[in-house]
Amino acid sequence: IPFSMDLPLLPSVVMQSVAQNQSLSLSPCPLSPGLLAHTFPQTQTTDLLRGETHRGRRSSRTRFTERQLETLQGVFEATPYPREEEYDSLSALLSLPNRIIVVWFQNARQRKNGCSKIDDVDNSCGDEAQGESQNENSMDLTYEYYTNPDSPVLDSSSHCIESEHLTDNGEPTPVMSKQENTQEDTTYSQANKSLAHVQIKNEISDAEIQRKE
Amino acid sequence: IPFSMDLPLLPSVVMQSVAQNQSLSLSPCPLSPGLLAHTFPQTQTTDLLRGETHRGRRSSRTRFTERQLETLQGVFEATPYPREEEYDSLSALLSLPNRIIVVWFQNARQRKNGCSKIDDVDNSCGDEAQGESQNENSMDLTYEYYTNPDSPVLDSSSHCIESEHLTDNGEPTPVMSKQENTQEDTTYSQANKSLAHVQIKNEISDAEIQRKE
DNA sequence: GTCTAATGAGTTGTAATTAC
DNA sequence: GTAATTACAACTCATTAGAC
Question: Where does this protein have compositionally biased stretches of type Polar residues (chains A, B) (predicted)?
Fold first, then answer.
């Protein structure tokens, strides 16, 4: 085992599971595992939003990478209540702000609770279903997403994405694609994220992402 | 692995099909910085149309070139659910706005569904070649979109137990962050040190986390 | 007419908020 | 800290309409 070392602050268990990624149960509530499929790396456009947004907008959801999720999940299974230092370690390790980690753990605990709770009750995991639940029968047949996305990509490690410009541009600018921003400003914020990425990757120093307000 | 350098994010399949079509040389980062020139001469007329149509009108249909379709199809067969980066790569590669690609994939999935639905799973619909599987270890399960109208999903048996998710992949150096990081940096730097090997293992390049609030 | 890109309504999981 | 809630992001599915 190449990575025999583990971090001092994190339980070794974690490293193991993370390393082999054995059965970490991400997706607690099974209905559609596929959703978190595409975890997106970085490119937070979130930055600005996150900092300032109390007025009006909430910060945009962080998209964890698979690796981040795996790690988080691994740690979580080992220690649902990490200590401050552990949060810090994770923060550094995953390159995520501390708060995000903390929140993730909160949610994870909640998730877990919810699950076991329903387990007893024999209800669905629906978080949202507390009031007017019951619809599960009526809607039946949800679409089934695929279980596991996963990309062919993998190794090709040498690439270029090199960091650095990661920008502080920020904000989900509905501005999209470099070549064309087509049409409307419907609520599609994903393009911008992508854009940033592509730019970096290709080193296209094209237009900057500006935010429209 | 000659090809993989070019577009790390796309399955090799693509490279093949693309290659035979016309050798695209989009050398991204390392070699020639800043040229996005690619080999794509034409920029769609669609762009213009699309650009203009946003006042209430629906955007005009994109007319994909043959090459674009081939590439899309190739990627689709390999990964019906590309992830963000892959969309980006495609976007850059094909000179199409991200949204268009996303939509194409949605439609492609729909199409495929329709096909299998009409006839049984094993019928020839033309596509359906997904014998891909070149990825890493992940377990046996590949994409499992539903083959039958009836899905096990809602079954009571499926509870929170579960699913293993994936493994992982390598996503291109996560660069990221720079979001707010609360708290002291002292700890994190030390953690950082301690975690160095892990980082390597995970291929997480540690971005600098700065800026605290 | 056919084919299919684009749209929109509806579903789901979950990150982020709020309340406690 | 938990518990409940909200808002988003990614999807499906059904439909509409644009080019042939």
Answer: 176-190
3 state DSSP class of A74: helix
Tell me if B84 and A190 make a contact (CB, 8 A cut-off): yes
A77-88 tens-digit pLDDT: 999 999 999 999
Taking contacts as CB-CB distances below 8 angstroms, the residues of chain A near B167 are 21, 66, 70, 150
Cα distances from B6 to residues A197, B67, B73, in angstroms, run 15, 18, 19
CA distance A61 to A46: 8
Burial of B108: CB neighbours in 10 Å, binned 0-12, 13-18, 19+: middle
Closest alpha carbon to A43 in B35, B199, B87: B87
Exposure class string for A133-172: b at 16+ Cβ within 10 A, else e:
eeeeeeeeeeebbbbbbbbbbbebeebbbbbeebbebbbb
User: What's the pTM?
Assistant: 0.53
Q: For B183, left (φ over 0), alpha (ψ -120 to 50), or beta?
A: left
Tokens found for residue B157: 């048996």
Judged by DSSP in three states, B164 sits in strand
Which amino acid appears at position B189 of this protein? S
Query: What is the distance between the alpha carbons of residues B12 and A203, in angstroms, rounded to a whole number?
Result: 22
A109 contact to strand D (CB, 7 A limit): yes
Half-sphere exposure of residue B37: CA atoms within 13 angstroms, side-chain side: 4
CA distances from A189 to A40, A44, A199, B90 (A): 13, 12, 16, 18
Chain B segment 27-56 residues within 8 A of A by beta carbon are: 28-30, 33-34, 36, 43, 47, 50-51, 53-54
The verdict on a CB contact (< 8 Å) between B47 and A179 is yes
The C-alpha R_g of chain B, in whole angstroms, comes to: 21
List the single residue in A150, A157, A182 with the smallest CB-CB distance to B203: A157
A76 vs A172, more confident: A76
The C-alpha atoms of residue A116 and residue B134 are separated, in whole angstroms, by: 36
Residue of B53 and B101 predicted with greater confidence:
B101
